[in-house]
Amino acid sequence: MTLEEKLGFDKIREMLAGECSNQLALRMTQEMTFLTNYEKVLRELRQTEEMRQIVMFASSFPSQDFVDMTEELARLKVENTVIDVEELLNLKVSLSTLRDVLRFFHDSADDRNESGQPSYPALTQLAERVEWDDAVLRSLNKIVDDKGDIYDTASPTLNEIRQRMRRKRIDVDLQISKTLAHAKREGWAPEDAEATIRDGRMVIPMLDTHRRKIKGLIHDESATRRTAYLEPSEVVELNNDLRELEFDERKEIIRILTAFSDLLRPQLGALLSAYWFLARIDFIRAKARLALRLNAGMPIVNDAVLMEWLDARHPLLVLDERVKEVVSFNIKLDNENHILIISGPNAGGKSVCLKAVGLIQYMLQCGLLVPCRETSEFGIFESVFIDIGDQQSIADDLSTYTSHLQNMKALLARADEKTLFLLDELGGGTEPRAGCAIAEALLEELCRRHSFGVVTTHFADLKLLADKHLGIVNGAMLFDTERMRPRYMLAIGHPGSSFAFEIAANIGFPADVLEAASQKVGAEMLNFEHQLQQMELDKQEIARQKEELAVADSFLAEVVQKYQRLNEKLEAKKYDIISQARAEAKQILTDANRTVEQTISDIKTAQAEKEQTAQARGRLRDKLEEVKQKEAVAAEKRRKSKLSVQQINKSTTQHSESDVVEGEIAVGDIVKIVGQESYGEVVELKGKKAVIESNSLRMRIAVENLQKTRKKVIPADKSKKQESRFQSIFDDINEKRKYFNPTLDLRGQRAEDALSQLDHFLDEAQLLGEKELRILHGKGYGILKTLIRERLQHNHDVQSFRSERLELGGDGITVVNLK
After folding, report:
1. For the segment 126-180, what is each residue's pLDDT rounded down to a tens digit?
2. DSSP output for 48-101
3. Distances in whole angstroms, Cα of residue 365 to Cα of each of 80, 328, 370, 660, 774
């Protein structure tokens, strides 16, 4: 088996070939090779990623008629050769596709992004090299129609010939109809007889007994010999003339094709290059379509040797419809840890994981997009080596282990720091101690050479190498001990257990035999295996709890800030209300004094006349009544405002200030969060921030937002309420986070609906603590993009936004960073 067959790349190549519609593109698929030049790999990947964006978003890009005409054009290099009539239509439609492709990239070159580059720079650069004269296509459009037929107007002579042919056919039809009608009236032909064609000539069916009644030529007779097919003598001459016109038509068509071939011949060089470009586009389009089937993208590629893959998936499993769910894996190999030893149960996915590593790396260096997260980082290796499966040979007198040894010998002969090796079940196939010793020595030598590799094994001695040598790290394929089945998940950092005894017991292996076996192995060995598995499960549980605590920490800190802002607003509102009340009271007093003074002045001026004095006193009473009413309204406003502030303060804190004491906060103090009813114990002080613990939950809060209390323990009733409330909050957040998609697709939406969805999307993302979002709005005329970015610009929760990287969508996608 070849390396590609061992990895499964031959199946990938077959699927890629199935996506091609061009014979030359199909040949490019077969010639696709493993690339070791960084610039070439990057160019191939960029071209494929740009085409993936085109296939997804650019509906105007041609999707058919990528016909390969290189063989026909190469044949025309010989003088006096003429293009076949059947090839004219293929030439026409393929040149039309070529023209549309070049026009698409020319237009996209004018539509530059914010950085001033074309929308598809790698493909545009490829298209700029194509030079061809579209006069060929214009000539073709005058010669052949969309069905492949030669136009009557292809030449004046052809037009005249075909007009004469049409007139002759009319004459033939008239004469045939006339003769057939006469034969029917005389009873010489069946009543239901119709004119037909024999040997390319119009004939009428005659009853055999009357075949001599009409002069003419007998061309055929029926199987029963009851009917003869006669060409009337009057039609013979007309058919002869028509046959001569058909000969003239063919000669004129050949003349037209000859003239067109002569026009084509000087441009064959440019046309062959153009058709190579068209095939190249079809090949890249096939790679893009395969990437969409794989849900693959372009990762970060470095001019170095490394692996830092996130959510990688086995390509063949992704394409297998029988597999309902493909478990992804993360892997990291760098200068510090460059050899991974994977252990775990049988049928737990070790070999599948090893093959996936090799296949994904091989695909990338063949210029194919890979199924992993786009933030994954890849390096470039000079060579890939794999030893997997049973390779014994009767013809060569090789055992399985001997063939493995020969492969190891070949690996040692050329392994260096740019080699990636993949070794399955290393050390197996021979006496365990000897096989393990050779395998251990081999890995130590490869580690010394700083080669990169992934190894699967069951040997405990190989698992211990990670503790002895820098550069080697263990990995485990996890196993569900409760359900007794593999989880197909790779965890790096600890070795895995084979679970031989557990699996044997699960399938009903005799208990007494297992007991005897366990005594031979020893309890210490079994405990070691169990501790390995339990350690990994505990690690995952701790990581899960740590993530939940981080979410809680962030959420509670945000709640504190919101309450602080609310209190600040209330204090400001309180100050404004008091200031307004004072101003109103001052104005009331001023108006009252002015009224009193005016009344006294009126009384003095009127010299205390009773009527005028009464009027003045009446005005004074009215003014006093008005003053009382204004004072009552102002008092009511102050009362309501006070109640509002009291209610809000009551909702944020239910404890009196008597719990709070002055003094510097120290580790061990019971503190209260400002503006809240939550209590917690200070477990750590870090500068201006304190880590407080409440109900096993830890959060980091600024010291200025905490109040020291005289309590020695957290109140029990409050503890239970906090625990219930926090658990409800965490459950709600985890549920929302589980189904939250950080990408919002607004393409095709009306502006009003799109902005409404955007606001809701941003609010939910802010609540869940998301930091980076992607908004798909497409390119089009840019109207929706402009409206969306204006809305983002005025949103206080948005820290910044930008266009997506060119290879990931460019101006058609906006990446938003939240505060």
Report:
1. 999 998 888 899 999 999 998 889 999 999 999 999 999 999 989 888 988 898 8
2. HHHHHHHHHH-TTS--S-----HHHHHHTTSTT----HHHHHHHHHHHHHHHHH
3. 46, 21, 10, 66, 29
